[in-house]
Design a protein that fits this description.
The chain has helices at about 25, 35-40, 45-50, 60-65, 90-95, 100-105, 110, 130-135, 160-170, 180-185, 190-195; strands at about 5-10, 70-75, 115-120, 210-215, 220, 225-230, 235, 240, 245-250, 250-255, 260. By secondary structure, it is of the alpha+beta class. It folds into 2 domains: about 1-140, no CATH class; about 160-275, no CATH class. The chain has a 4-stranded antiparallel sheet with strand order 4-9-10-11, with no helix packed on it. A 3-stranded antiparallel sheet has the order 1-3-2. A two-stranded antiparallel sheet has the order 5-8. Helix 5 packs across helix 6 and helix 9 (about 160-170) runs antiparallel to helix 10 (about 180-185). The longest helix has 12 residues, at about 160-170. The two termini are about 30 Å apart.
């Protein structure tokens, strides 16, 4: 299971957003982001986009783009457990505007790099209490990411950091989880599930895979789009803070968030027995 809702990120650089299928947007979609933002700030373009109807071929995309009660500004720092009053629909009602107007302005924040958050699963009640109940179940195991297949709209690579930052330290909308339990979720419990019994414990003979963390400084930047895949392909990344060192097989692979050049990892083709 995941430690936060299965969610989609919508922005001018992501796979789609609420205006992506509008004819007026399609006319400028090929432009570099700064030029697109400049065009979208033009009152005439804004008026046309707000008056047009989208030409979606996928009903699910139209559903997401118009579910304003479940669409939230992600923010920086990002908020994955936003209250109902932070939704686009609630904000539009407070301000006497249409949801489309609110979305339009939100997408142009941060020079067009702001993102909207659509919690698709595990957020029916508008909080993390159902997720907490599952995390506390003795058979629960963390996992679940479809980001490799949908790297332009999903970014779950930050989940391990998020578990420590939010569930252990920052959550205010409900009970938190203990540090020891969250660490165990992401170490020994996962190792046992996959039969990698030589890791996940600090004990003689076990693999020395460690993260040295400054828990007070631990945090996540807002997701961002980079174009570093083959042929300039797009993907979402989210940079963490607060990792003093990452040690794999006893060798430091990252120090203060920067790679050291050490690469002691190897391909695992099956279960590994316990050293004791």
């Amino acid at each position: 299971m995941a430690g936060r809702p299965t969610g989609l990120l919508l922005g001018l650089e992501t796979t789609f957003h609420p205006f992506g299928a509008h004819p007026a947007y399609q006319e400028i979609a090929h432009l570099p982001l700064p030029e697109r933002v400049t065009r979208m700030r033009d009152p005439a373009v804004r008026r046309r986009l707000l008056e047009e109807k989208p030409e979606h071929e996928m009903p699910v995309a139209l559903f997401i783009a118009q579910s304003f009660h479940k669409l939230f500004p992600l923010g920086d720092p990002p908020d994955y457990e936003p209250p109902a009053e932070a939704s686009v629909a609630a904000r539009a009602a407070r301000e006497g505007r249409t949801p489309q107007e609110v979305v339009y302005d939100l997408l142009l924040e941060r020079d067009g790099r702001a993102m909207l958050y659509f919690p698709l699963l595990n957020y029916a009640n508008g909080d993390f209490e159902a997720i907490r109940a599952m995390l506390e179940h003795p058979l629960a195991v963390l996992g679940l990411s479809d980001g490799g297949a949908h790297c332009g709209i999903i970014c779950d690579a930050s989940m391990p950091t998020y578990m420590l930052q939010y569930w252990v330290r920052d959550r205010v909308r409900g009970p938190r989880l203990g540090l020891e339990e969250v660490v165990r979720h992401q170490t020994r419990r996962t190792a046992e599930l996959y039969g990698l019994l030589d890791r996940g414990l600090l004990a003689p003979g076990f693999r020395a895979d460690l993260n040295l963390i400054d828990l007070e400084e631990l945090g996540l930047d807002a997701p961002q789009v980079v174009y570093d895949l083959p042929a300039g392909g797009r993907r979402l990344i989210q940079r963490p803070r607060g990792y003093r060192a990452t040690i794999q097989s006893g060798r430091v692979t990252f120090e203060n968030g920067e790679p050291t050049g050490e690469r002691p990892g190897r391909l695992l083709r099956g279960p590994i027995p316990s050293p004791r």
